[in-house]
Amino acid sequence: MTKVAAPSTRHTRRWPASLAVIVVLALQVAVPAQVMDAPRWIMPALGALLLVPLVWTNPFHLKRDEPWLRWIELVLLAVLVVANAVYLTGLILLLSDGNAADGKVLVKSALLIWVTNVVAFAVWYWEVDRGGPFARMPEHEHREERPDLLFPQMTADIPGWQGWLPGFTDYLFVAFTAATAFSPTDTMPLTARVKTLMGIQSAISLLTIAIVAARAINVL
């Protein structure tokens, strides 16, 4: 008798998203002073303050669903995106003023902005697709909204992939490809809200690579 494999719980894991956000918050300490005059601990402290209740209620797997937790998540993501936009603006102003003589500072800043951009939007996609990670769970099927992203596993009946659900790594890959190709690759955006998010992410990435990184390489 063939043994049926237990269904994967990778889509219920909370810790990969939390770990990615923690890494990005830690990177904010490395923002060069030329880009931001304010104390560099402000952004990590604010982000940690918002992240604590999310990790406390669901440290490893998604078990406790509360509306206020989702709002905290969205506020945290908004803070990350706005702060990243401020860094990028500061870097572009630094370039326009002709004060960008240190190529290492430019490369460091561009890398920090690019990584933050990928992680922040990966969590955005993870949080909004089909109403969020809790709504995507099979036991909450009645709450599930229409898909915001069309993954390849959803387009065909592939043996071994029945009942597949995306986890955070899948959304991280979507954000990574959008930031490198400046457009969707294997996973298509379906709804206006995700198309808007992907457009903003691609624009930030394009500005970071085409303007800042290119100038940094020229300086070096």
Structure description:
By secondary structure, the chain is mainly α. The protein is 58% helix and 2% strand. It has six helices and two strands. The chain has helices spanning 15-27, 42-57, 67-96, 103-128, 168-181, 192-219; strands at 149-150, 188-189. α1 runs antiparallel to α2 (42-57), α3 (67-96) runs parallel beside α6 (192-219) and α4 (103-128) crosses α5. The termini are far apart. Mean pLDDT is 79; it is low at 1-7.
Structural class: mainly alpha
Residues in helices, as a percent range: 55-70%
Mean pLDDT: 79
SS summary, helix count: 6
Low-confidence stretches: 1-7
* Order of helical and strand elements: HHHHEHEH
State Rg.
Answer: 19 Å
If strands are numbered along the chain, what order do they take across the biggest sheet?
1-2
Coarse shape = globular
> How does the major sheet shape up?
2 strands, antiparallel
Strands, total number:
2
Distance between the termini: 65 Å
Tell me briefly what this model is.
This protein has 220 residues and is mainly α. The chain is 58% helix and 2% strand. Helix 1 packs antiparallel against helix 2.
